[in-house]
Amino acid sequence: MGALHADTILDELNSLWASLGGAVRACSLTLIVFAEESDDAAAIGETLAELMREHPHRAVVVRIQPGSAPYLEHQVRSQCWMPLGRQEQVCCEQIEITASQASLADVVPVLAALRAPDLPLVLWYRSASVFNQPALAPGGFRPDKVIVDSDAAEPADMLPRLAGSGFPVADLAWTRLTRWRAIVAQLFESPRALELLPRVREVRVLYSGGRLPSQALYLAGWILGALGREVSCRFDEAEGEPGGIQGIELPAGEAGLVSVKLSGGAVVTTVDGIRNCAGLPVRSDAELLAEELAIAVPDSVFREALRHAARLAVRP
Amino acid sequence: MSGENPFRDPLRYESGVPPCAVIIFGANGDLTRRKLIPALYRLAYNRLLPCGFAVIGNSRTPLSDEAFRDRMRQAVTEFLDDTPFQTDVWDVLARALFYVPGDIADPGVYERICTKAEETARRFQTGGNIIFYLATHPSQYTTIAAGLGASGLARGPGLRRLVIEKPFGHDLESARALNRDLQKYFDESSIYRIDHYLGKETVQNILAFRFGNGIFEPLWSRHFIDHVQITAAETIGVEGRGAFYQQAGALRDMVQSHLLQVMATMCMEPPAAWEPDAVRDERAKVLRSIRVMKPEEVPLNAVAGQYGPARIGDTEVPGFRQEPGVDPESQTDTYAAATFFVDNWRWAGVPFYLRSGKRLPKRVTDVAIQFHAAPLAVFDSVSNGKAASPNLLIVRIQPEQGISLRFLSKQPGIGMKLRPVSMDFHYGQSFGSRQSWDYETLLVDAMRGDPALYIRQDAIEASWAAVDPILKVWADERFDFPNYPAGTWGPKAADEMLARRGHAWRNP
Questions:
Q1: Label partner for A273 (CA 20 to 30 A): which of A36, A126, A229, B398?
Q2: Is A79 in the same domain as A188?
Q3: pTM (2 d.p.)
Q4: Phi, psi of B496 (to 5 degrees)
Q5: Would you say residue A256 lies in a domain?
């Protein structure tokens, strides 16, 4: 266990860069990752390495150990890659801090000093439990974006809290829906489908895995927000991978049905008897993060969907 | 509920593609197989095709719908690159592929296409909207447009768009004639002329760089810029297309089209808004401001070249005249360099050097903006004259995309010795390396009716007006070709053209 000083870490970073010789230093943001010690360190490393190609960053990974004894440890390292056909490596810096619960209060002021100057600060809470740590409350960091993942959390707790937060928030559970939403949006480019919309009286979301996932609530919330009027929402369980969306149905009475359903890894859409099909590739955490990091302005569509989803999450 | 799709989310995904049918002429050709159908599959896979969508292919080869689908499936699997081939996605797309065989000179073929288009409109709810994609030889554009006009296909009820590829004529007069012929049947706003260079990320990034940042635009004028060099170099020869290339040449094939468009993007005034016509207006204004050379100015401001045989590495490379299908006495320019001036307040007196050639040492396309040297070389006495190295801003278009700024820096150590260093922005490093999406982008833009990446008639004619005097002088000249060996940076005369103004080509 050692003391944690920002100056020491920054000196170590300078030495690291000196040892890297002619490598190109790339940085467009600071990404602070809060993780539990039990989280797969290799998986986090792979995600950050993949992410750096699109969003080069200074990563500060804070791993939290259980226990009341003070404990602080840190190390610095680089993440490099060689772009195809080029001579020099492109490198990003990574600082890993391991802290016990008892030492978390000592970590926070150091994190403020490790922020790369004049660049955006993004906080990524890998689990609900770290997000719930009072010492790591986002407000203290004045972040440009806070990223959480409500898929593993209890929606009734998490979604209202996110909806009521005063900071710019993003939820990877929502980001996982982009492809679904894009498919639905493309359907309604058709005037015939658009004509059905005023007659939709119900939003039906099919999900799998036993527990109603926040993705299902977001999807319904998004549709409610787009419709701009109250319609009933129904969540039905269907067979499939746990925690996933299996389909959406928008019945419009006698006028017809808009249906978007997962079928063997592809999404099949049906409107008024016309069937289409699109791919639904599984997206890595790095791809989801990259999508969120690419959005630097307030995301009003997400805010509106979150507002409705939070309401649906706590309804009796 | 208003008529607007409430599910759009432009922050996250593209949408706004209306239902439509794409009618491809030349459907059995290389462009369709290699580019168009794989691009349509990728759009389907990425859910960017509209819900109501169909393709009708036409060419002379007799094929059934099924045989056409089989061929297109082969093409997709062969040219798909990195997108996974998913049978479900293909099967749904394939069901919307149809084929109508027939000669474009036969009026009956348009009747049959019309019948098929009506049928697909009902069956696939394409809304009667049609994109005509002419993937044929340019000499057939007029015939097809006339056929579409005579059959009534060129007019609604739905939207109609005509997509064509370069060359748009072979000189100013033929470009005007082509435009007149097309506009008999299609409004100018419905004609989409493709220039792939405008679809390249870096070319679009020139606009972002100039108009999204506050620090560069004040420097973007004759007050700070000494000259500009635009280079498009290829290492390959004519690759079996010698007979075709003989009709074109580097000036027509590259300078008149791509390089002048890139130059216009570099030089244009800020558009009033990020809207297709505002951008295209500004580009066209620049092209119209290019000083037209007098015949006697051409030899001093334009250089033609043709590569001769050479040994490159351990390979004997034939000269252009030794390529299959090429006239042994050919006068075709495989290299062209020209000096242009833009006669407006911003650019008066700044030379723009454009060059393009085949069989050059390196495949590279870039734009180099050389700034004036510092007004006082205070470090000259201690830096061996290196303080005179001017700042250089390089916009790299291919193979790598990015921007570099060269400036002087103190060498580490005792004394005040300066040396040039480069600050690099690599597009791939900051935004990830992605496959080129040129055709997908262009197809979606045509469907959505966004012509920003397409060239307007006035810009085509203005660029022909800039090169026409050169073509006319060269047509009367008998060049002593070949005048550069394959694998070199072109003829000496091109170096002399710059040397007359105290400049030199950079080595990209």
A1: A229
A2: no
A3: 0.79
A4: -65, -30
A5: yes
